[in-house]
Design a protein that fits this description.
Length: about 40
C-alpha cells in the first residue's frame, strides 16, 4: 500500500468518525425528543 493511499483511507475513517457519527447521534436524539403530532 502506498503512503498516499494509506493517508487517504485514514482521512476517510477520521472524517466518518468526526462528522458522520456525531451528526447521526444528534439527529437520532433530536428526533426522539422533538416529536411532531400529526392529526388528520
Amino acid at each position: 500500500m502506498t503512503p498516499s493511499l494509506s493517508n487517504f483511507l485514514t482521512s476517510l475513517v477520521a472524517g466518518v468518525a468526526i462528522v458522520v457519527i456525531p451528526a447521526s447521534i444528534g439527529l437520532f436524539f433530536l428526533s426522539q425528543t422533538d416529536q411532531v403530532d400529526r392529526k388528520l
